[in-house]
Amino acid sequence: MTGRHPIHTGMQVDVIVGDTPYGLPLNETTIAQRLKPLGYQTHCIGKWHLGFFAKEYTPTERGFDTHFGYYMGKEDYFEHTTLEDKYWGFDFHKNGEVYKPVFGQYSTEIFTSEAQRILQQHDPSQPLFMYFAHQAVHSADPDQPLQAPAKYVQRFPTIENEDRRMFAAMVSAMDDSIGNLTQTLIDTGLYNNTVIFFTTDNGGPPASFDYNYANNWPLRGTKNTMWEGGVRGTGFVHSPLLEKPKRISEDMLHVCDWFPTMYRLAGGNVSELTNLDGYDVWDTLSKGVTSPRKEILHNIDPIGNFSALRRGDYKIVIGNDYKGKWDGWFNAIGPVDDYNPPPLKPGRVSCPPRPANATTNCKPTEKPCLFNIRNDPCEFYNIAPWNQDMVKQLKARIEAWNATAVPPRNKPTDPKCDPKLHGGNWVPWVKLTIPQ
């Protein structure tokens, strides 16, 4: 949203919980705010999760002409209610106002309908930016974390595991959404001058992590860890404007790169942007030019005391989260203790044979671990013991990044957020006198 790394915005520790009064700093400029002076209409659909404790932090105050969706990180797909700590309430909003007509309707479908309506009513002479953050396939609340209409569940009678079958149904609904939205772009005549960026914000949560059943195997770890299963994201770019389409890119890209890349596509001068942590990677995506990015700081968490960075083929991991509970390898259902390399195929993760000491050769809370990610994306082989010079180089890079970090913005719970005080709704509850 800003092209800046979370260590530079104070958002590097965990996620914003609905009852905590903080958000993306107001002195940060969003991509929507950058595009408005270029004449763009800007629309936000779905998940926000960048703060809402004060109205100044909500989407229509951060550069978006419209917003149709929810403010927090999760909710029920049909009721649009959510429990945050001990507080429960309704969280669905349209342009800053509570919007109840959606109660009982499935998120994936109503978000798609709203996106189609915007495209159908759009004046093609004016440029458009749509940030469409699907709720799928995130977990809802713990009482019923995976949800989909019966018509989608019925598509997968051969999947025996009930949770995995529901997950497949949720993916299928989202797949229909993308197809329907693409068809609407074609029908409205907008398609030929459109670029679709489809991506995730983290690796999957398998084996009941976060009450979900995604699958990162054979990659190590889960969502919210520094392992490849947590930091790698699948995605695609689709457009008639691509000069070399229908190919797989293994170039290094980071979420911060979307901002300058989109700004360039919109006609902006990227050289005028300052304090960005992202690169313009359009030539990489469109022409197959080597990515200008050579390094990715995965994160530095000063509270959890863990960090990770990749430079070139090498990745260093220091410390861990969850006391190491999710440091292993998991398929959708649970831990996996073996690995047979599959036939080589473009885009497919392929790793060397798993050694017997895979679970013990790296203890990142004791010593930094080092991996060659190009040769060993599964992080089976900790090569730190005989590559101490590289360990020192990457530790120095983390220290250099850390010298530029700002303190985490996390705040304690504020009981004034309680939806019971606001008609049963999650709404902004703080009136700002001084920008925060």
The beta-strand count equals 13
> In one word, what is the shape?
globular
Report the helical percentage. Answer: 10-25%
Number of helices: 8
Terminal-residue CA separation: 18 Å
Strand order of the largest sheet: 6-5-2-1-7
- One letter per element, helices H and strands E, the order comes to HEEEEEEHEHHEHEHHEEEEH
* Overall pLDDT: 96
Contiguous runs where pLDDT drops below 50 for at least 5 residues? none
Would you kindly provide a brief summary of this structure?
With 436 residues, the protein is α+β, with helices and mostly antiparallel strands.
Overall description:
By secondary structure, the protein is of the alpha+beta class. The strands form four sheets. The chain has a five-stranded mixed β-sheet with strand order 6-5-2-1-7, with helices on one face. Helices cover 19% and strands 14% of the residues. The two termini are 18 Å apart. The protein is built from eight helices and 13 strands. α2 (107-121) runs parallel beside α4 (162-187).
What characteristics describe this protein?
five-stranded mixed sheet, four-stranded antiparallel sheet, 8 helices, 436 residues, alpha+beta, 19% helix
Topology:
Blueprint: H1 31-35, E1 41-47, E2 66-70, E3 81-84, E4 87-90, E5 93-94, E6 97-98, H2 107-121, E7 128-133, H3 150-153, H4 162-187, E8 196-199, H5 228-231, E9 235-238, H6 258-265, H7 282-287, E10 295-301, E11 306-311, E12 314-318, E13 369-372, H8 388-402
Parallel strand pairs: 1-2, 1-7
Antiparallel strand pairs: 2-5, 3-4, 5-6, 8-9, 10-11, 11-12, 12-13
